[in-house]
Structures are given as structure tokens and as C-alpha cells.
UniProtKB/TrEMBL annotation:
Species whose genome carries this gene: Pyrinomonas methylaliphatogenes
Pfam families: Sigma70_r2 (PF04542), Sigma70_r4_2 (PF08281)
Matching Gene3D superfamilies: 1.10.1740.10, Winged helix-like DNA-binding domain superfamily/Winged helix DNA-binding domain
Family per record: Belongs to the sigma-70 factor family. ECF subfamily.
UniProt entry keywords in alphabetical sequence: DNA-binding, Sigma factor, Transcription, Transcription regulation
GO terms (BP aspect): DNA-templated transcription initiation
Name assigned to this protein: RNA polymerase sigma factor, sigma-70 family
Keyword Electron transport among record annotations: no
Keyword DNA-binding: yes
Start and end residues of each RNA polymerase sigma factor 70 region 4 type domain: 122-170
Entry's Gene Ontology molecular function annotations: DNA binding; sigma factor activity
Length: 183
């Protein structure tokens, strides 16, 4: 393409672009109020209606060459407005449902954690009331130590460890049952 043809092509495309921009500005001036009103009627929220209006005119701008002119333009804009408002409502409902489900799960986890924490506190209180050396024998046995190891650690006779553990277990169950009965 020679230099004159290039200049001619550029001027044609600039004229076409400026005509398209003028066409867009005219369409915006003529139809932005009705687009906003339809969006507001569907959404009942001014900020969301403004967002939908902006999206509709962005779609118009991106599709200037494909959009019908004159009478068909208004119908196209309103159809796009209704679709955008519907899509936005769906997205908001889905997001709301996800947030609600998350809040429900978090609430259930919190309630479960609180219940577990209360239970652990009750176990600790009951264990604190078990008399020594039965408490120490019981705790060490729960840690997996053998009777011999427990006897060495606590400086007790190995033959008495089994009865101390049994006594500690009975005392714990009695005290824990009392604590649970208060709830």
C-alpha cells in the first residue's frame, strides 16, 4: 500500500470511529435514563442499577458494529438491561447463599468447639480432684507407660500401681459424673 492509500485508509477509519463515538454518545443520551429505570425496577437498589447501566453501555460500546440502529437499539438495550439485572441478582443470591452456608458451618464449628472446650475443662476439673498418687498413676498409664515405669517415676511399689490406677479411675468417673450432672 502506498503512502496516499495508507493516509486515505487511516482517515476513513478515523471518520468511522468518530461517527461510531458520536453514535454511542447519542445512544447514551437518549437511552441511559430508561436503562437505569428498568435496572432499578428489577433490582430495587440505586447502586446496583448504576452498575447494570454501566455494563449495558459498555456492551453497547464493544458491539457498536453489531447492534441494531434506531428502533431496534432501544429494544436491544432493554433486553441487555434485563439480562444483566437478572444475572446480577443470580450472582448476588448465590454469593449470599454461599456466605450463609459458610456462616452456618462456622457457627456449628464454634458451637462444637465450645462444647468440646467445656468437656475438656470438666475432665481437667475432675482429674484435679482425684487424690495423689492415684491421679499421677492414672495420667502416666494414659501416656502409655508400663507399671514398672510408673513405679520407678513415682518411687512406688510396682505391685500397688494396678490398684492405684483402678482407684484413680473410679474416683475420676465419680467426680466427672457429678460435674456432668450439674450441666
Amino acid at each position: 500500500m502506498d503512502g496516499q492509500a495508507q493516509v486515505l485508509a487511516n482517515s476513513v477509519s478515523k471518520e468511522t470511529a468518530s461517527e461510531a463515538l458520536a453514535s454511542f454518545d447519542e445512544a447514551f443520551e437518549l437511552h441511559h435514563r430508561i436503562v437505569y429505570r428498568v435496572a432499578y425496577a428489577r433490582l430495587r437498589d440505586a447502586a446496583l442499577a448504576e452498575d447494570v447501566t454501566q455494563e449495558v453501555f459498555l456492551k453497547l460500546y464493544r458491539n457498536l458494529g453489531k447492534v441494531p440502529r434506531d428502533e431496534g437499539l432501544r429494544a436491544w438495550l432493554l433486553r441487555v438491561t434485563i439480562n444483566e439485572a437478572r444475572d446480577l441478582s443470580r450472582r448476588r443470591r448465590r454469593a449470599s447463599a454461599r456466605e450463609e452456608a459458610f456462616a452456618q458451618r462456622a457457627s456449628e464449628r464454634y458451637a462444637f468447639d465450645c462444647e468440646k472446650r467445656l468437656e475438656v475443662d470438666e475432665v481437667r476439673r475432675a482429674l484435679e480432684r482425684v487424690r495423689e498418687p492415684a491421679r499421677s498413676c492414672l495420667l502416666l498409664q494414659q501416656q502409655g507407660l508400663s507399671y514398672r515405669e510408673i513405679a520407678q517415676i513415682l518411687s512406688l511399689n510396682e505391685r500397688s500401681i494396678g490398684s492405684l490406677i483402678a482407684r484413680g479411675r473410679r474416683e475420676f468417673l465419680r467426680l466427672y459424673g457429678k460435674l456432668r450432672g450439674r450441666r
